[in-house]
Design goal:
Number of domains: 3
Shape: globular
Bound molecules: nicotinamide-adenine-dinucleotide
Structural class: alpha/beta
Helix content: 40-55%
Oligomer: single chain
Largest sheet: 7 strands, mixed
CATH class of the largest domain: Alpha Beta
Number of strands: 14
CATH superfamily of the largest domain: NAD(P)-binding Rossmann-like Domain
Number of helices: 25
CATH topology of the largest domain: Rossmann fold
CATH architecture of the largest domain: 3-Layer(aba) Sandwich
C-alpha cells in the first residue's frame, strides 16, 4: 500500500475532514489522528471501511424515494468519495439506476431545487474570452476525462439548461465505478448558453442564465474557445460530449474529432453498445447482420451513430457499402426517411430509401417486415401491441430494442415486449426493467446501457495516451463486449453481461481499444510490455490508503 508522508501542503485537521478525496471519517487510525491533527475532531471508535459501508447502506435504504436516495448518495460523495465508490461498486445493481438513468433524469428535472454543493465547472456565455482562466480555477491540475453537456437534450427529457449538470456528474461517477478512472482526474462541465425551457426561465430556483439559448456564431465561438482552452490547460484530456441536441451533436463531432481527443457518447457510445447487443443476438438466432432488415424508430444522433457502426461492421465482414445500407430503414417524427423527402439533413440523407412515404410506425413495420426494430425516438409507448404481434408473425425471434430514456420514454416495456410476442422477443432497453414472469417462465431483459462501453473506451484511451478517438475503437469495444457473453446467458435471451461483471467488461474493452490505438499509431505513450497488466494497475480502487 502506498504510504503518504504528510508534508506542509497535505491538509490536516478540519481541512482534511472536508476534503472528500482524502477524507476517511471515522476510519482514520489512531496514528493518523495523532499526526494529522485530528484528535478530538472525531468520535473515539475507529471503524473499518466495511463497517462504515454497512452503516451508510442502512441509511440509504431507509430513504423512501429514489430521489431521496440520489440526494443521500450525492452528499456521501461530497464528504467521502472512497466510501461512496466502495458502496456503489459493491451494490452496483441497486445503485446504478439511482446515480444514473432513470433517477438522474428526475434529479436533473429538479436540480435547482435539490442543489446543495457545486460539483464540476459551469462555463457560461458571459465567460467568453476567459475560459482558460476558469479552467485554471479547477483545483486538480491533471485531468484525464471531461464530460461536457450544454443541457439541450437531457436523456429524452429535452432542454434542461444548466440543470443538466447531473449528467456529466453521473457519467463521470460511472467512469470511476465501471472502469476505475481516478475520481480526482475527472471533470464534469456544463456549458450554459441559456435555455429555451420557459418553465425553467420562470423558476426562481433555476441555477442557470436567464436567457434564451445562444445559437449560430455566438454558440460556435464559445464551443471553439472551450475546446481550444481545454486542450491547452489539460493536454491529452479526453472530452466526452453528452446530451447535446442532434443538430449540434453531429456537427460538433465532425468539427472536432480530427483535431482533439474527443467523442460523442450519444452517437458513438450508443452505437457500440447496440452493436455489441446485436452481435450477441446474432449468436442466439444463429444468423448474421447482413441478413437482417433493421428499422429504426427515431433518426437522430443515436440512430445515425448505430446505423453508421452497423454499416462499418458489415463492410468489415465483406459486404458492399450500398448493400449494407439497403437493409437499414430510418423513421423520424415525419415518417420514413425516403428519397422523396426534402427535409433531410446530410447525415439522414445517406439512409433515405427508395420506398413509399409512410408516416405511421406500425404500418411501416407491416410493410417493411423488419427482423430488428430499434427505438431511439424519445417517445414512450410508440411500439404498439399490433406492431409487436406483427413482427412476431414474421419472425421466430423478433429483436426489439426500446432504448429511449428514462423509463417513461421507453418505446415499450419489457413485459409488453415479452407478452405481445408470446415470450419470443429478444429484448433490450435503455433504462433497466425487472425480470418478467410469464406463463411460468422467467425472462431477463438486457439493458443496452452505454456504461458497458464508454468507461472501458476511456480507460483504453487513458492507458495508451491516445491522441484521437476513432470509430474503429468503438467497433473493437463492441466485439470485446459481445465476447464477454457466455453461451448459457445467451440461451436465456440475455444480451449483456450482468452489471457486477462491469469492471471486467471495462478491462476487456480497454485492452481492445488500447490495442486499436497502438495499431493505428495514435498512442502518445510507449506501449507497455504487458498492456493488460498496465491497465489493471492504473485502475482506481476505493480502498483507504494509509497516510502515515
Ligand atoms: P435526438 O433528439 O437526436 O433524436 C430523436 C429522433 O426521434 C429524431 O429523429 C426525431 O425526429 C425522432 N422522433 C421524435 N418523435 C418521434 C416519433 N413519434 N416517432 C418516430 N420518431 C420520432 O435524440 P437521440 O440522441 O437520438 O436520443 C433519442 C433517445 O434515445 C433518447 O431518449 C435517449 O435517452 C435514448 N438513448 C438511449 C441510449 C441507450 O440506452 N444506450 C443511448 C443514447 C440515446
Amino acid at each position: 500500500m502506498k504510504k503518504f508522508l504528510p508534508d506542509f501542503s497535505f491538509p490536516k485537521g478540519m481541512e482534511l475532514l472536508h476534503n472528500p478525496l482524502l477524507n476517511k471519517g471515522t476510519a482514520f487510525t489512531a496514528d493518523e489522528r495523532k499526526q494529522l491533527q485530528l484528535e478530538g475532531l472525531l468520535p473515539p471508535f475507529v471503524m473499518t471501511q466495511e463497517e462504515q459501508k454497512i452503516k451508510v447502506l442502512a441509511s440509504v435504504r431507509v430513504q423512501t424515494t429514489d430521489l431521496d436516495k440520489y440526494i443521500y448518495l450525492t452528499s456521501l460523495q461530497d464528504r467521502n468519495e472512497a466510501l461512496f465508490y466502495r458502496l456503489v461498486i459493491d451494490e452496483i445493481e441497486e445503485f446504478m439506476p439511482i446515480i444514473y438513468t432513470p433517477t438522474v433524469g428526475q434529479a436533473c428535472q429538479e436540480y435547482g431545487h435539490i442543489f446543495r454543493r457545486p460539483r464540476g465547472l459551469y462555463i457560461s456565455s458571459n465567460d467568453k474570452g476567459s475560459i482558460k482562466k476558469i479552467l485554471r480555477n479547477w483545483p486538480q491540475k491533471n485531468v484525464d476525462v471531461i464530460v461536457v453537456t450544454d443541457g439541450e437534450r437531457i436523456l429524452g427529457l429535452g432542454d434542461l439548461g444548466a440543470d443538466g449538470m447531473g449528467i456529466p456528474v453521473g457519467k463521470l461517477s460511472l467512469y470511476t465505478i465501471c472502469a476505475g478512472i481516478h475520481p480526482e482526474r475527472t471533470l464534469p462541465i456544463t456549458i450554459d448558453v441559456g435555455t429555451n425551457n420557459e418553465e425553467l426561465l420562470q423558476d426562481p430556483l433555476y441555477i442557470g442564465l436567464r436567457q434564451k439559448r445562444d445559437i449560430g456564431d455566438q454558440y460556435d465561438s464559445l464551443l471553439d474557445e472551450f475546446m481550444d482552452a481545454t486542450a491547452q490547460i489539460f493536454p491529452n484530456v479526453l472530452v466526452q460530449f453528452e446530451d447535446f441536441a442532434n443538430r449540434n451533436a453531429q456537427r460538433l463531432l465532425a468539427k472536432y474529432r480530427n483535431n482533439y481527443c474527443t467523442f460523442n457518447d450519444d452517437i458513438q457510445g450508443t452505437a457500440s453498445v447496440v452493436l455489441g447487443g446485436l452481435l450477441s443476438a446474432m449468436c442466439i438466432i444463429k444468423s448474421s447482420l447482413d441478413k437482417q432488415r433493421i428499422l429504426f424508430c427515431g433518426a437522430g444522433s443515436a440512430a445515425i451513430g448505430i446505423a453508421d457502426i452497423l454499416c462499418r461492421e458489415m463492410i468489415h465482414c465483406g459486404v458492399d457499402k450500398k448493400i449494407a445500407r439497403k437493409n437499414l430503414f430510418l423513421f423520424d417524427s415525419s415518417g420514413l426517411l425516403t428519397v422523396d423527402r426534402e427535409d433531410l439533413s446530410e447525415a439522414n440523407l445517406k439512409y433515405a430509401q427508395q420506398v413509399d412515404i409512410e408516416t405511421n410506425f406500425s404500418a411501416a413495420v407491416k410493410k417493411l417486415k423488419p427482423t430488428i426494430v430499434i427505438g431511439v425516438s424519445g417517445v414512450g409507448g410508440v411500439f404498439e401491441e399490433k406492431m409487436v404481434r406483427n413482427m412476431t408473425q414474421e419472425n421466430d425471434r423478433p429483436i426489439i430494442f426500446a432504448l429511449s430514456n428514462p423509463t417513461t420514454k421507453s418505446e415499450c416495456t419489457a413485459e409488453q415486449a415479452y407478452s405481445w410476442s408470446e415470450g419470443r422477443a429478444i429484448f433490450a432497453s435503455g433504462s433497466p426493467f425487472d425480470t418478467v414472469r410469464l406463463k411460468g417462465k422467467t425472462y431477463h431483459p438486457g439493458q443496452g446501457n452505454n456504461a458497458y462501453v464508454f468507461p472501458g473506451v476511456g480507460l483504453g484511451i487513458v492507458a495508451s495516451g491516445a491522441t484521437r478517438v476513432t470509430d474503429e475503437m468503438f467497433r473493437a469495444a463492441a466485439h470485446a463486449l459481445a465476447d464477454m457473453m457466455e453461451y448459457k446467458n445467451l440461451e436465456k435471451g440475455t444480451l449483456y453481461p450482468a452489471l457486477p461483471e462491469i469492471r471486467n467488461v471495462s478491462k476487456r474493452i480497454a485492452l481492445a481499444v488500447a490495442l486499436e490505438v497502438y495499431n493505428s499509431d495514435l498512442g502518445s505513450q510507449p506501449r507497455p510490455e504487458n498492456l493488460k497488466q498496465h491497465i489493471e494497475e492504473i485502475m482506481y480502487s476505493p480502498h483507504y490508503e494509509s497516510y502515515v
